[in-house]
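Worked Example 4.2. Consider the chain below.
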Amino acid sequence: MHKLSDNPSKQSASATHAHRSDLISWRPAQPGLWSGQIGFDFAGLIELTDDEYVVTDWRGDRVGIFDSLADAQRALEPSHRAQIRDAADRSALRLNIIMSAAFVVTTVTAASFAGAWFTASL
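Applying the procedure from the previous section yields the following structure tokens:
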């Protein structure tokens, strides 16, 4: 069951009018449930459960749980999603660099030991 929060700041985001964030138009589907659209495309849902806003994207994947409607709306903004994706890409790149460096060090070390062993065995 959906209910509006007892918190006045959350009640100000009532289901009586559409909310607009950068690119997504938000419309109340029912009390405690907002539907977002980018143009004619479905962007996601925000559901108020207890005192938290649960966000799901256009695929039905959970994006997160937020304390305010504004934060929940911002979570689906394409620019915000792009920042999250870019941060994940940078982390993956760092990991690849570290793993490559570890591989090179391991290979050089193994080659050094193999060369020393081969030289000593002659």
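The two ends are 81 Å apart (CA to CA). The longest strand covers residues 41-49. Compare this with Example 4.1 before moving on.
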